[in-house]
Amino acid sequence: MSSAGPAAIDEAGSSVGRALPYVLVLFSASGCAALIYEIVWYQLLQIAIGSTAVSLGFLLAAFMAGLCIGSLALPRLAIGSIHPLRIYAAIEFLIAVLALGELFLIPLIGRAYLAGPSGFAGMLLRGAVCAISLLPPTILMGASLPALARAVSGAARWGLLYGANTVGAVFGCLFAGFYLLRIYDVNVASYAAIALNVAVAIVSLWLAARTRPHPASDLSAPEIAFPAPSETGPRWTVYVAIFLSGASALGGEVVWTRAMGLMLGATVYAFSIILAVFLAGLALGTAAASSMVRRLDPRLALGWCQMLAAASIAWTAYAIADALPYWPINPQLSTSAVFTFQIDLVRTVLAILPPALFWGASFPFAFAAAVKRDEDSAATVAGIYAANTAGAIMGGLAVSLLAIPLIGTQNSERALLALSAIGGLIVLMPLMERARSQRLEFAAGVAAGLIALAAWGIDKIPDELIAYGRRMAAMHGMSHVLYTAEGRNTSIAISRWNDGSLQFHVAGKVEASTESYDMRLQRMLAHLPALIHGDPRSVLVVGFGGGITAGAFTTYPGVKRIVICELEPLIPPVSTRYFGKQNYNVMNDKRAQIVYDDARHFVAATPEKFDIITSDPIHPFVKGSATLYSLEYFETVKRHLNPGGIVTQWVPLYESDATTVKSEIATFFAVFPYGTVWANNLNGHGYDLVLVGQLQPQSFDLDKIQARLDSSDYKLVAKSLADTDANSATDLFSTYTASKAALEPWLKDAAINHDSDLKLQYLAGLALNHAEEDTIYGEIMRYWKQPKDIFTGSRQHLDALFTAFGDLAKQQPTASD
């Protein structure tokens, strides 16, 4: 293999096998391009069908379905007389053409927003349409391995092809996740992958002109001296085993990506690390098995690979539930992203690499166990590959859409372990019958018993991990977790802090609480726009959370309609159970309607307009949430405001940095040029902000606002404010911090977050460990100016407000300092 070189391949009529190193490099580049496409298409699908478990599930299903169809279709085409490398070159070129088309097709399909229904049925419909759009290029990707299998002989080399492709996928995953999409956008990333496909096609044609394909008689020359498959057991058992291997592998990836996402922070970088480690395990396992396939009975080796994969599933479950969460690691030990990535990589390798190794090793052994001397090598490879990808489709969809929400992570892992063990036994049982080996029967029985014991011993995900995620070690013992649940899209928890306050957690983050500073923020998001507007009638609340923001609107006598858009159906009833007093039982208020859907879809599709739209999404570093901070999303929100309408948006200063906050504010102001910034401080220090956007310049009449608060109709409003220590309009409006005009010098270099790049999630992911909230607030306050042109009213109210402003300004540096 290593002797192939330029001289060898320049000899007319030399075999493709002698140029195998070049072929492996080409197929590795092809795998790199494929993973770049997968990551790009997922980002586009977040815009088209929403950032949900459905979107991820359909992306995986479409990708795997295309691979399955393509691998089965190619051997059936009457192209056996054409040089395999010419076929491969044509496939790569067509992938490039279709991938270019996807950049335009997926956004067009996103317009189905305007016609599709809401809720889970709508997600399924939109997901199915987008999945169909991905089939053409993925079918071609699936055809590439069988095409190359005709150029080289033997299961070991087929395994090397698969391994090389997977190595390229590892690089593509990291290249796209850490560089291309962080620095550029989906277009540039796609062009890079397209360039790779075109380069592979050109080099493949060059190689085809200098080599000859294997003669038909050499297509599947046996490499092993073991009995033929018909002598060792039915061939179908090999296909069933590799099918179950694919189901357990993709099911495991889904389960562990979600669990590890809690532990690592659920950033785009964390997901890239998890996927890269998983793929690296497949590649390493394939490479190791390819080197051993000539020396081992392939059926026996395949069976034990499945049994060892089952044992490794138990190991991963133990690592995630019982070991890694309790590592005494302070997540804010360093602000260096490189240090964080190193720790994340070590934990991911320890947890996920072992089972991936055995799943990868299964391929060469399955190829060898299924091979027939008189069968087209493309058909052999296609059959194994298709069975594995079909299993992957079943496992990925079943786990993400059904198993996790119905039976939870713990029982999902038990089911995956059982599938893997069953696959092993199915392959091993014919060997036991043929050889009548008591030693093999005893070993298989002991292994099955130990695996059953391991399945019984799998523990559930720690409640504190669901509640606090990556900060679990730092928060351990500081609260009592009252409730946890795993939904289709996210996991939630309710805890009681040691001071008695309640906390509501989503995806390992505290998203609402009864702490005074959180109550103030949650009600500011409602009271600021409602009092500025004066007479709101209809309200849209994006995200239920603890229900406190939505509940604050029920105190306004003029509000007739409150629409709440929530992605996870678990949240409203659980929040109502624990936060009913604080959220005024809004879920059961006759004016409230809860829509379970992706917020982007609902806002774009609804014909309704609102007086107020308020949004309190999860932190922008969480993968997928940056879509609710993009310029295009804010433009959609603006189109759904009534004349005089107001929008409010939450911006966290904690677990962030100035670059990230600048991007959030600048993107908002690009759509709402008359926007303002309001601060929710913690003990006088920066904590988080509320952005208020309006369509026209506004002045706030303190006399009118205070008169409303003093009226009997607004008794509940005044009480709601007083509960957060805002006893007057002056107290509430003294949180004013800045206008767009004042902050323009600070925001001049800010990155605007577009749908095409979602730059914010990459910026925010690098700032995850930062604790700069007070520093960022201080930077903003350097540009603070007396807002004399914004507030109007009597001298008494203005003097009180400006006195409050003056006391605040004295504590801050100025822009000239």
For this entry, give a set of tags.
single chain, 817 residues, alpha/beta, Growth Hormone, Chain: A, eight-stranded mixed β-sheet, four-stranded antiparallel β-sheet, 29 helices, elongated, disordered C terminus
Explain how this protein is built.
The structure is a single chain. With 817 residues, the chain is α/β, with parallel strands linked by helices. The chain has 29 helices and 16 strands. The protein folds into four domains: 219 residues, Growth Hormone, Chain: A (Up-down Bundle); 231 residues, Up-down Bundle (Growth Hormone, Chain: A), CATH 1.20.1250; 44 residues, no CATH class; 251 residues, Rossmann fold (3-Layer(aba) Sandwich). Strand 8, helix 19 and strand 9 form a beta-alpha-beta unit. It is elongated and about 95 Å long. 60% of the residues are buried.
Helicity level, as a percent range?
55-70%
CATH superfamily of the largest domain: Vaccinia Virus protein VP39
The proportion of residues in beta strands is 5-15%
- CATH architecture designation of the largest domain: 3-Layer(aba) Sandwich
Give the SSE map.
Elements: H1 6-10, E1 14-15, H2 20-49, H3 53-73, H4 84-109, H5 119-149, H6 155-183, H7 186-208, E2 211-212, H8 229-232, H9 236-264, H10 268-292, H11 298-323, H12 337-370, H13 377-435, H14 438-456, H15 463-468, H16 472-475, E3 479-486, E4 491-497, E5 502-506, E6 509-513, H17 516-533, E7 538-542, H18 548-553, E8 561-566, H19 571-579, E9 592-596, H20 599-605, E10 610-615, H21 631-639, E11 641-652, H22 658-671, E12 676-682, E13 685-694, E14 700-701, H23 702-710, H24 715-722, H25 729-733, E15 736-739, H26 740-747, H27 759-766, H28 773-781, E16 791-792, H29 795-810
Parallel strand pairs: 1-2, 7-8, 7-10, 8-9, 10-11, 14-16
Antiparallel strand pairs: 3-4, 4-5, 5-6, 11-13, 12-13, 12-15
